[in-house]
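Replying to the earlier thread about multi-chain prediction with a worked example.

Input:
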Amino acid sequence: MTAVTSTLPEPALRATGEALQDTLVDLLGLSLIGKQAHWNIVGPRFRSIHLQLDEVVDTARSYADTVAERAAALGITPDGRPETVASRFALQSPKDGWLRDTEVVHLLVEALESAIGRLRTRIETTEHSDRVTQDLLISLTAELEKQRWMFQAEDWPREG
Amino acid sequence: MTAVTSTLPEPALRATGEALQDTLVDLLGLSLIGKQAHWNIVGPRFRSIHLQLDEVVDTARSYADTVAERAAALGITPDGRPETVASRFALQSPKDGWLRDTEVVHLLVEALESAIGRLRTRIETTEHSDRVTQDLLISLTAELEKQRWMFQAEDWPREG
Amino acid sequence: MTAVTSTLPEPALRATGEALQDTLVDLLGLSLIGKQAHWNIVGPRFRSIHLQLDEVVDTARSYADTVAERAAALGITPDGRPETVASRFALQSPKDGWLRDTEVVHLLVEALESAIGRLRTRIETTEHSDRVTQDLLISLTAELEKQRWMFQAEDWPREG
Amino acid sequence: MTAVTSTLPEPALRATGEALQDTLVDLLGLSLIGKQAHWNIVGPRFRSIHLQLDEVVDTARSYADTVAERAAALGITPDGRPETVASRFALQSPKDGWLRDTEVVHLLVEALESAIGRLRTRIETTEHSDRVTQDLLISLTAELEKQRWMFQAEDWPREG
Amino acid sequence: MTAVTSTLPEPALRATGEALQDTLVDLLGLSLIGKQAHWNIVGPRFRSIHLQLDEVVDTARSYADTVAERAAALGITPDGRPETVASRFALQSPKDGWLRDTEVVHLLVEALESAIGRLRTRIETTEHSDRVTQDLLISLTAELEKQRWMFQAEDWPREG
Amino acid sequence: MTAVTSTLPEPALRATGEALQDTLVDLLGLSLIGKQAHWNIVGPRFRSIHLQLDEVVDTARSYADTVAERAAALGITPDGRPETVASRFALQSPKDGWLRDTEVVHLLVEALESAIGRLRTRIETTEHSDRVTQDLLISLTAELEKQRWMFQAEDWPREG
Amino acid sequence: MTAVTSTLPEPALRATGEALQDTLVDLLGLSLIGKQAHWNIVGPRFRSIHLQLDEVVDTARSYADTVAERAAALGITPDGRPETVASRFALQSPKDGWLRDTEVVHLLVEALESAIGRLRTRIETTEHSDRVTQDLLISLTAELEKQRWMFQAEDWPREG
Amino acid sequence: MTAVTSTLPEPALRATGEALQDTLVDLLGLSLIGKQAHWNIVGPRFRSIHLQLDEVVDTARSYADTVAERAAALGITPDGRPETVASRFALQSPKDGWLRDTEVVHLLVEALESAIGRLRTRIETTEHSDRVTQDLLISLTAELEKQRWMFQAEDWPREG
Amino acid sequence: MTAVTSTLPEPALRATGEALQDTLVDLLGLSLIGKQAHWNIVGPRFRSIHLQLDEVVDTARSYADTVAERAAALGITPDGRPETVASRFALQSPKDGWLRDTEVVHLLVEALESAIGRLRTRIETTEHSDRVTQDLLISLTAELEKQRWMFQAEDWPREG
Amino acid sequence: MTAVTSTLPEPALRATGEALQDTLVDLLGLSLIGKQAHWNIVGPRFRSIHLQLDEVVDTARSYADTVAERAAALGITPDGRPETVASRFALQSPKDGWLRDTEVVHLLVEALESAIGRLRTRIETTEHSDRVTQDLLISLTAELEKQRWMFQAEDWPREG
Amino acid sequence: MTAVTSTLPEPALRATGEALQDTLVDLLGLSLIGKQAHWNIVGPRFRSIHLQLDEVVDTARSYADTVAERAAALGITPDGRPETVASRFALQSPKDGWLRDTEVVHLLVEALESAIGRLRTRIETTEHSDRVTQDLLISLTAELEKQRWMFQAEDWPREG
Amino acid sequence: MTAVTSTLPEPALRATGEALQDTLVDLLGLSLIGKQAHWNIVGPRFRSIHLQLDEVVDTARSYADTVAERAAALGITPDGRPETVASRFALQSPKDGWLRDTEVVHLLVEALESAIGRLRTRIETTEHSDRVTQDLLISLTAELEKQRWMFQAEDWPREG
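Result:
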C-alpha cells in the first residue's frame, strides 16, 4: 500500500509523473544556475542583470514547489535531491568563475529556450493524461517565455 | 587582472575563501534536502514538520545568498552549480520516495549537527583570517543550532 | 425577458449551468462540514488539523463565490440557499458531537476525493460547452487535489 | 467522560448551550441567504447592495465562528452541518432566481429584525446563565442592529 | 535578423499574433472609453458607476500590458500607438459631453458584449496555434464576462 | 493627597482594586509559566504546542497591561514586581527542566481552569463595585476559556 | 410613519435616546476643545501634550460616530449640528488664545472627569432601557477613564 | 511678549490671519454637517451618499488641522471652540431629523459652493499678504471643487 | 441647463477649459507611446529603460485623471476618446516595430520637451483665468521636467 | 555642449539656479546640525526633543533631494559636497559637546528663522524666473514655518 | 539520556549555561520592573517616560526569549519561573506605589548600569566557552547601553 | 561632572571614542558624496547607478546614526557638524559638475576601499578597547565591502 493514492488511472499517472519530475529538475537546476550567474556576473550591466536574475530564481523556486507538490498530490514522489538534479539537469550551465554580463545574457536565453522547448512537448503529453497538470505547465511556459524575451531583448544588436 | 580585487592579503584570503565555499555547498544542499523532505513527508505530524521544513529552507537559502555574496565581495568566485553541490555535499541526504515523519526528524537532527560541527571549525579558522566572515558564520551557527534544537525536541522520548 | 442574458448558446448553457450549480452545492457543503470539524475536533493533533481545516474552508468559500458569480455571468441564477445545500449535498458529512482527529482526517480525504471525482467529470463536459468555465473547474480541482494529498499524508501508516 | 468539560454548572450550561446553538443556526443561515442575494440581485442599486451584502456575510461568518467556538469552550458541541442549518433555520429566505434590489432590501430588513428579536430574548436568558456568553450576544446584536438600520434607511419612502 | 526570435513556427505565429494585436486594440480602446465615461457620467447613480468604471479600466490596462508582453515574448511587435488604437477600435464608443448614467450602463453592456464575442472567436483560433496564448484569452474572457454581468444586472427592469 | 484620584467611591474602590491586583498577578504569573513551557517542552507535539503557548503568553501580557492600567485609571497603584508575583501567584507552575508535551497540556488546562474560576468570582464582585472593570474581566474570561478548550481538546482520549 | 423604526419599546427608547444624544454632544464638544488645545498649547511640554491631545480627539471622534449610528440604528435621529453642540455642551472649555501646557493638563482632567460622571449616570439608566447601548457606554467610559488618568498623572506634584 | 512670534509683517499678518480663521470655521462646520447628513440620510441612495459624505468629512477635518496649524505657525491663535464655530458658521446647515437623499445632495452642493466662493476671495487677498497661505487655500479649493462636482453630477436631471 | 455648472465666469472658463483639454490629450497620448516603447524596446539598456518608462506611464495616467476631473469640476466635459487622442496628439510618436534603446531615449527627451513647452504656455494663460488649475499644471510640469532630465542624463555623451 | 540642457532661458536660469543651490546648502547644513543636536542633547526633555529633531532632519533631507534634482532638471549641477556645505552654510550651528535641551530649542528656532527669511526672498526672485521652482520653495517654507512654531511653542515662558 | 543533547563540550557548556541563565533572570526581572514603572509613574514627564519604558520592556522580553532559546539550543533548560526570577533577581527594584518621574529615571539608570556590568563579565567568560553565545551577549549589551544613555541624558543637570 | 558617564575605563574609552568619531566623519562624508554623485551622474548607466547610489547613502546615513549614538552611549560626544565633516573627511570626493557614469563607478570603488581600510584598522584597535563597538564596526565593514564589490563588478573590463 502506498502512502498517498492517486486520483489518476495508471498510464495517465505515469506520463504525468514523468512530465512533472522532468520539469522539477529543470526548475531546480535553473534556480541554481540563476543564482550562480547572480553572484559571478561582472560588466557594465552588472546591477541590472544581477536584479533580473533574482526574478528568474524566484520564478523557478516558486514553480518548483508547485510542480513537486502537484506530483505528491497525484501520489507520485518528487525527487529534487542534489545528486538527482546534477545527474539529470539538461539545460546550459555557466562555466566556473566570473561571468561577463553579455555571456550571462546569452546563457539565460539558451537555457530558457531549452526549458521552453521541453515544456511545450510536455503540454502535448499531459493534454491526454491530466488537464490539471497541463494547465500548470501552460502557466509556467508563459512565465519562462516572458523571461526569455526580456533577456533576448537585452541582447541586441547581436552577431547573427 | 581579476574582475574583483580583494581587501584581504593572500593567505587569509585562501582560508576565508575555502570556509565560504564549503559553507555555500552545505547550505545549498541543505535547502534541496529540506525541500525534498517537505514534499515527501508522510505521517501524523505531516503538517507540523512540513511547515517547519520551510523555515529551514528559508534560512538555508537566505544564508547561502549572503555567504556567496561575501565570497564575491572578497574577490573569490562562489560555485553553487548543480554538479558542484552534488559532488561536494557532505551532509546526510534522504532516501528516495515517501519519508515517515519520524525519519525526517532524525535526518534533520543529523544533517544540522554535521553542518554545525563543520561551521564551528570554520569559526576557528576565520578568527585569524577574516573577522568579518567569522561574524557571519557565528550568526549562521546560531540559526542552525536553534533549528537543531527544535527538531531534537520533537524527537523525544527516543531510543537510546 | 430575463434580467441577465447569456453569451452562450442554449445547449451549452444548460450543461455549463448544471456543472456550476452542482459545484456550488459541493463547495458550500464542504465549507459547512469543514467548519463543523474545525469546531468539534479533539485529539493530540487538535491544533494542527484545526488550522488546516480553515484553509479548506477558505478555499471552499472563495471558489463558491467565483463559481456562483460565473453562473450569474452566464445568465444562470445560482442557488445556494440552506435547503438547496442540504437536500443536494452529496459528499460525506460528519456525525454529531466531538470528532476524534483521526476520524476528521479520514472524513476529509473521503469528502475531497468525492468532490474531485465529480469535478473531473464536469471538466470533460465543459470542454465542449464552455472553455472559460472549464478553466475555472481545472483550477479548483488543483486546489482540492492539493488539500486531499495533505490530509492523506497525515493518515499514514493506515490500515489497508 | 466527555472530551471537553465545562466551567459552567449544569442548568446554566443547558440554557447557554441552547442560546449559542440557535444563534449559530441563525448566523450560518444568514450567511447563506446573504450570499444568495449577493449573487442574484438585479436592478439600479445592484452594485451598492451587492457590496453591502458582503458586509452582512462577513459579519455573519465571523460571529458564527466566535459563537461556535464559545460553545466548544463551554464543553458543548456546536452543530452547523448542512441538514441542521436547513431544518432549523427560522429567518426569511429569498425565493429562487433573480431578485429585484427592492425585494432584497425588504428581505434583509425582515431577516435581520427576526434575528435581533431572537437575540434579545437570549440576552435575557444568558444574564442568569453565563455573563460571558451574554456579552458576546450583546456585541452581535449591536452589529445586526446597525446592519438593519442601513437596509431600512435604503427603504424610504416606503408604502405603509 | 529580428531582435526577438519566436518559439512558435510560422503559421501558428501569424494567427496568434493577430489574435493578440486585435485584443490589444480592444483593451486599450476599452480603457479610454471607460475613463471617458468615468469623467462624464451624471445622474443619481453617478458615484456607484463612476467607481465601477475604474474597475473596468484597471482590468483593461492590466490585461493590455499582459497581452502586449505576450506578443513581444513570441517575437511579435505589439502596436498600441494612438493612431492604431483610433483607426482599428471596433467597440461602441460614447458620444461627446455629459453622459446620463443609464446610457453609460447600456454602453458598457454593449461594448463588453462585442469584446467577448470577438474573444471567443480568438479562443477557437489559438486552440490550434498556441495553448499558452489561449489560456491568457480565457482568463481575460472570464473577467470581461463578469464585468458585463454586473452592468447588465444594473440595467433592470429594461425595455425589451 | 494622592497622585491620581478616583472616580469610584471608597468601598467600591477597594473591592475593585483587589479584583484587579489579583488578576494582574495571575496574568503575569501565567505569562512567565507560559514562556517556561514554551522553552522547555519536548515530545512529538513540540512545534504545535510551542507555538500555541506563545498565544497564551501574548494574551496574558496584553491583558496584564490593560488590567494594570485600569487599576491606575481608578487611582489604585498596581503591583507587578518580581517578589509580588512570586509570593502571590496561586496557579499551577511547571517543575524544573524539560517538560513532556503531554505534561504541558495538562498543566495549561489546570492553570487556566484555576484562573477562570477565580475570574468568575471577581465578575460577581465587580458587578456591584464597577461595571467598567467587570466588562474587562468578562472579555478576559472569554479569552482564557477559549484557550482552556483548545488545550483540553488536545488532551483526548485521556485517562479518567 | 418614520423612516427608521425601532427595535425598542417606547419608554426604553426615549431614555436610551437621551443618553445617546447627550453623549454625542459631549464627544463632539470634546473633539473640538481637544483640537483647540492641540493647536494653542505652549510651554516645555508642548510636543508631548500636543500628541496626547490627538489621541483624545481620535477617541472622541470615533466614539461620536459609533454613538450617533447607535441612535440611528434604534430609529432616533442624532443631532450633531454646530448650534446643537454649542448650546448643549456642558464640559469645561478653554479660554481664547495661547494656552500654557499646565492649564491644558488641568482642563483635560476636569473635562474628562465631568464627561465620566455623566456617563456613569447613563450606564445606570441604560441598564434598564437597553443593554446593547449600555455596553457601548461602558467601553467609552473605560477609554475616557484611561485618558483622565494619563493627564492627571502628568499633573504631579500639584497644589492641593 | 507673545508665545509665538510671526515671520510676517503686521498688515499682511492680520489679513492672512482672518483668511485662515474664517476658513477654519467653514471647515469645522462642514465636518459637523457632513457627519449630521452621514447619520440622518434616508432613501435609495443611502449607502452611496453615506460613504461619500465621509470623504467630505475627512477632507474637512484634515484641512482644518492644516489651516489651524498654519495660523499657529504665523503666531496667530486659531479658534475652533464650539461656540465660535456655531456663531460664525455661514454655510447651509441641514434641518433636524431624517434627511431624504436628494435633500442631502442639494445641501452639499450649496454648502460647498458657498465655501468655494469664500475661498476664491481669500485666494485674492492672500496673494498679497502671504503666498504660502495662498498655496494652501488653492489646494483646499481644488479639493472642494472636486467634491462639489461629484455631488452635482449626482443631481441630474434636476428641476431648473 | 447643463449637468454641472461652473464656479468660473465665462471667458476664464473657456481659456481654462482649453488648457485642460489640450493637456489631457498630451497625457493620454504620452501614456500610450510610453507603453509602446515599454513593450518594443531592445538593446543593452532594455531592462533599465523598460522600467523607467513605466514611471512615465504612471505619471501620465495619474495626471490625466486629475486633469480630466479638474475639467469636470469646472463644468467642462473632458474628451479622451480614442479618435480625439489620435487626431489631436501633437508630441513625437515612435515608429512601428522594435525600437533600439538609444532611439527610445531620444524619443522621450523630445516628447517630454514638447509637452513641457506647451505646459509652460498654459501656466501663463491660467495665471489669469484660474489659479487652481495653474497650480495643477505647475506640479505636472515639475514631474515632466524631472523625467526629461533623467532621460537626457542617460543620453550622454551624445552627438551634437 | 552640456550634458543636460535647460528648458529655461538664460537670465531666468541663473537666478533660479542660485536660489536652488543656496537652498540646498541650507538644507544639507540643517540636516547635519539637526542630527548633531539629536545626538548631543541632554536634559529633562531629552526624549521629546530628540524625536522632534529627527522630523526636522527627515524634512531637510527629503527637500534637499527634491531641490537638488530640481536643479539638475533645469540643467544646473547642484553642489552638496562636504567642503561646499561647510564653507557656505550660513545658519546657526551648535557648539561642540553636550547640549542642554533649552539651548537646542533656542538654536532650532534661530536656525529655522534664518532659513525661512532667506527662503522668502527666493520666493520673490523665482516668481519672475521660474514658477515651478517657486512652488517648490513655497511648500518647503510651509514645512519649515511649521517646525519653527513647534520649537518656539516649546520655548515658553521665555526671557524677553 | 537527556531530551536535548549539546553541541558544546562539558566545561564550556557549564560556563555558557550559567551566563545564559543569569542573563535570563536579569531580563525577565527588568521586563517586570519596567512595566511596574510604566504603570506607576507620575510627574510632568509622565507620557514621555511612560512610552520610553515600553521600549525597555520590549527589548527585555525579546532578548529574554532569544537567551532562553539559546540555552535550550545548547541542551540547557532555562528557568524563568516566578519564584526563580524573584529569588535571583539582583538589579534595583522600585518601591511600592506611585513613582515620581525623576525617581524612575534614576532607577532605570541604576538598573541598566548593573545589568551592563554583569553582562560585560559574561562577555569575557563566553569568549572562551562559546563564541556564538558571546555574540548574542554583545548585541544585548549594545541595546542596554543605548537605553542607559537615553535615561541618563534625561537626568541632567543632576546633583553630583 | 559630565552629562553622560561611561561604562568603559579611561584608556579604552579614548581609543574607542576616536574610532567612532573617525568612522562618523567617514560615513557622513560618504553620504554627502553619494548624493552628489546621485544628482550629477550622466551617461548610459545613469538610472542604474543613480539608484545604486541611494543604497550607499541609506547605508551611510543609517550607520552614521548608530555610530554616533554608540559614542553618546559611552559618554563621548559625537561631532558631525558641517565644518567638522569638511575638515576631517579623508576619502575621495567628486569634482564639481556633471559626472560621467564610469567616473562615478571609479570614485565609489576608491572611496569605499579607503573607508574599508580605515575600518579594518579600527576593528583591530577596538578588539582590545570595546568588543561591543568592534562588533558594530564589523557589521559596517561587511556592508561596505558588499557595496565595493558591486561597484567594482560594474567596472569590467577595465584598463589595468
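Chain J has a mean pLDDT of 97.

Feel free to reuse this layout for your own posts.
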